[in-house]
Request: fold
Amino acid sequence: MSGQSKRQTWEQVQENIHFDSDGLVPAIVQDATSKEVLMMAYMNQESLQRSLETGETWFWSRSRQELWHKGRTSGNTQSIVSAHYDCDGDTLLFLVRPTGPACHTGETTCFYRGIESPAIATSEETGGKSTQDRQRFAVLEELEQIIAEREKERPEGAYTTYLFDKGVDKILKKVGEETAETIIAAKNKDNAELRLEVSDLLYHLLVLLQERKLPLDDVMSELERRHERPRRD
Reply:
């Protein structure tokens, strides 16, 4: 999300959200770390207010005609990181930190079924862009998503699982070791070794950010803010 989004009070939100004739508005829920869209449900004014007050998602069930707190029975709650609505005021967007799968099937996202199409397949192979237009650092975003999935699923035998199982002290130890090895490689003027050590360091830093639930986007936003500050030279 843009760092320049405008924050509004609850009173302003009430004035600007356009609920439909049934008093509902669609709410899209997105993983704050992986940016994967998890689900879409409906909110009325009360469920929106409860979501903002409690910091966890609440929705309105159209089939049961009642409020429901996501994860109340399954434990798969969603802690809200940020809440926005679109320019027309008729769609909500929540960035969340999920404690488990969003879908009742056990899948991470409700949108786990793809639709086959030759045209879409060509687009998906390049991430919807030509090879030249792909973002230079897209691999960091992909790695961040993989690390987030490893933390949730904890596949046996995976090194990332091992780090999360051991906890923050082990992760910090690895960050320190890789930092020292990066310094040594640079001092030795060995760029081949430096490339390997920096890669290891970046990976372990991403693991640390995931353990602390600090999105890489927040770090990038901080760098952007620093870059925008007036220069003193």
